[in-house]
């Protein structure tokens, strides 16, 4: 059936509304996966930077002990890097929470609906294949048998279509809620960190029930 | 001579003051090279982070167009990452200036004095070797010849010692001046960037005559 459809030799049952929603969900999933991959490299690069800040702070501290003339300069540099690492730990927790939640959204929540969609698409193919056969037969001995089978495929297809429709609706609400919260966390934690606002950073973590220290 | 010295079979001419200064310079060079290496990874990790921020900002902008319900969330996230990249470019210029100046200090300025130190150390070895020989000869036909050679080695040694002494003095002043300025730049640029203070970041760049855009 699917080959006939590609060749344009047969008709397919189309539900414009649901098919559009499915298309949109697949696009959304793709985009969220991109965001997830970028958030992961964000976290990696940031964590590498923190490691360098840690080493640099130690090195500045050591030089502070050894260098009488540049004692102050090494001292405030060591302190600044130390504070950046300290706040960085908090931001890293926020980033990792964002990543973990987005990962669950993509690989569990959305994936669950995608699996139902695949079942629905198979049922649609089977239903259309049976419908095409029935149209070609037009009259004959196996007519009744075929019509029973057709009825069963039709029911299965419609049942799965309704499943998909319900799941899409719930997913859309749920997904929007989760992303709204996560995007707010991501933004507020980053904005607080990069404005050196320790209080705002702590407040953001508290707001999202995240631990301050990993 | 250097083998005899290691075996403790001969004496060596020691100038405690200058030898201590040489030892300190070698330690300082080692420490500055560590700082240089760390500053280079700082700049690399930071630049990788900026690249991710750039991609993330674009991705958020794209999602802003596509997602009606999360339009605001994607919008402010895109904007924040964009501003971070914009300020990051300036910080990166400051970091690279710090790296380039420290590199010159280690590989040119300090290295120049180190080369003179090596010549001085060779002259000291030759001078001590000649002195030892002269002591062993005590009396003999080649005494005058040897004493002429000894005189020449002695002069060469003392000339180089004075060279080293002068270079060490100038290097110390110069090195302290350069590092004082660089450590201030490094600190102020980083502190301004990580407190989201664009004005202070611009002012720091101006203070050190650095371009805002690379």
TrEMBL record, chains A, B:
Transmembrane segments: none annotated. GO terms for cellular component: trans-Golgi network membrane. It comes from the Eukaryota. Residues 13-206 form the AH domain. One of its GO terms (biological process) is regulation of Arp2/3 complex-mediated actin nucleation. One of its GO terms (molecular function) is phospholipid binding. This is AH domain-containing protein. The chain holds residues 154 to 367 of 384 of the full protein.
């Amino acid at each position: 059936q699917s080959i006939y459809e590609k060749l344009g030799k047969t008709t397919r049952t189309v539900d414009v509304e649901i098919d559009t929603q499915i298309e949109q969900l697949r696009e959304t999933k793709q985009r969220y996966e991109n965001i997830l991959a970028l958030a992961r490299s964000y976290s990696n690069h940031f964590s590498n930077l923190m490691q360098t800040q840690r080493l640099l702070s130690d090195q500045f501290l050591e030089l502070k002990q050894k260098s009488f003339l540049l004692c102050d300069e090494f001292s405030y540099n060591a302190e600044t890097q130390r504070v950046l690492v300290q706040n960085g730990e908090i931001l890293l927790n926020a980033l990792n929470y964002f990543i973990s939640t987005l990962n669950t959204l993509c690989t569990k929540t959305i994936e669950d609906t995608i699996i139902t969609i695949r079942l629905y698409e198979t049922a649609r193919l089977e239903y259309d294949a049976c419908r095409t056969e029935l149209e070609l037969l037009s009259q004959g001995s196996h007519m009744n048998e075929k019509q029973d089978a057709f009825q069963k495929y039709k029911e299965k297809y419609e049942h799965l279509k309704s499943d998909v429709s319900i799941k899409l609706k719930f997913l859309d609400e749920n997904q929007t809620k989760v992303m709204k919260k996560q995007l707010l966390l991501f933004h507020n934690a980053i904005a607080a960190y990069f404005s050196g606002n320790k209080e705002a950073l702590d407040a953001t973590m508290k707001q999202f029930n995240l631990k301050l220290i990993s």
